[in-house]
Design goal:
Length: 276
Amino acid sequence: MVYNVVGIRFKQAGKIYYFDPSGFELKQSDNVIVETARGIEFGQVMVGSKEVPEDKVTLPLKKVIRMATPEDETQLRENQEREKKAFTTCLEKIAQHQLQMKLVEVEFTFDRSKIIFYFTADGRVDFRELVKDLATVFRTRIELRQIGVRDEAKMLGGLGPCGRPLCCGTFLGDFEPVSIKMAKEQNLSLNPVKISGICSRLMCCLKFESNCYREAKADLPLIGSKVRVDGKEGKIVETNPLKESLIVQFGEGGKREVLLGAVEEIILGNENGPKT
């Protein structure tokens, strides 16, 4: 069975969720009001109407209520201003209760039925009295949600070691597992300082770039293979998949970088297969 859906996002670089378009002709960048598990929310269409199989959706499928109006956009901006004031208030309450926690972000649901306070902490925090104080001030449902350092970096944003805005804060909708093996496959230094992001975890780019390296390596000979270049025989000691080049050791003649296209013959070693 297939369902007609639209993909909607609620935050920049947030996860995209599928909704029933309810008969509306929706296109990318349209603003809409939808029903979610936590109430009425303001979202933006990122994926236009399309059909997806049942295993790709979460049932029951929530519906798009209506197209967003100028009044809805005004309310969204008002909520954002309220979030700034709520952030300051919460900081004061945290200081009063002397809690060991770091407030990261405050979020109002669109209908203002709940306020969510995101924070980080080294361990468990007893914030029951804090919740009572906040509920007294704001007179609505209060939720304190402890998040990890990767989520903190995504919310706060910043520049990565490459000098560009953080991937998690600009286009990555969700986090995926990253491993040291991915750094090895990309011939990177295993120095934690050099392969970690500002969150002190392995950089997200190791994950989404790993497929590019695997595809590029598929066309290169194995390290250790013997090749002939300009009539000379040498041994491959290193590869550069993105440049499609090889570092070849020519006996006592030293090493030399050679483009793959300049290799006349692979004397010993497989041309295809997993590369080390």
